[in-house]
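A quick aside before the break. I want you to see a complete sequence-to-structure record at least once, exactly as it would be stored in a machine-readable document. Don't worry about memorizing anything.
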Amino acid sequence: MNAEKYLHQLKIAAIFFLMTLAVAGAGLFFLRSARITDYTVYGNRMYSDDEIVQLITEDRPLEKNAVYVFLGRPLAAQVSIPFIQRYEVELTGESSAQVVVYEKSIIGCVRYMSSYLYFDRDGIIVESSFRYITGTPVIEGLRFTQAVQYQPLPVEDPEIFSKILHLTNLLKKNKLNVDKVLYESDSSVVLFLGNVRVKLGDSSWLEEKLSVVMANLGALEGMSGTLYLDNYEPGASSYTFVFKKDE
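That is the input. The structure line, written in tokens, reads:
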């Protein structure tokens, strides 16, 4: 009787083991076969779509698994990516997913030794990199002796960052890409567009001055010299601005 009971328990254990093995095998097969092959990336300016996908999934095979992503990526930690605050991955189909990227807010950068220091609207250094991000205004003329990441850039006049923010917002609005922006000792602003320098003077009538720049871009193409807008006033004579060619 005891032997029959033992054999019965052994059969149940064997059946349970085989069922567990079958379920595990099916689960493993499903996990391996349910791969994400199509990604759509939103919110990225500093990296290409392919770069974002590679940075998130490289050496992390689970990140490409549809089941894992569907379950909310329970074991996943945010990959630290320069210039990226955070990102979200969401399944959109059997083999497709979307990645929403939230980039760090950057209004400009300064050259420091052999690196670029990128700062936000409050002057906080949010990133230090050898890489220059195309379209980011390079600010010159800010005086500081040291710089620490995630700390304010220690300039003489902290109010300068609100002026930089105002200027860079206008540059974006007008889709005007400049090589660099120089703040002179008297707070006058000079834009550099190739071989053309644009002296804006102080921050008065800034939007109107940039409208003049935009209106004359075609005429200035290929030229070398300085466009003087430091004395420009809307409604005044057109001679309130002048272009002088380099000799």
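Two observations worth writing down. The two ends are 113 Å apart (CA to CA). The chain is about 30% helix and 25% strand. We'll return to this after the break.
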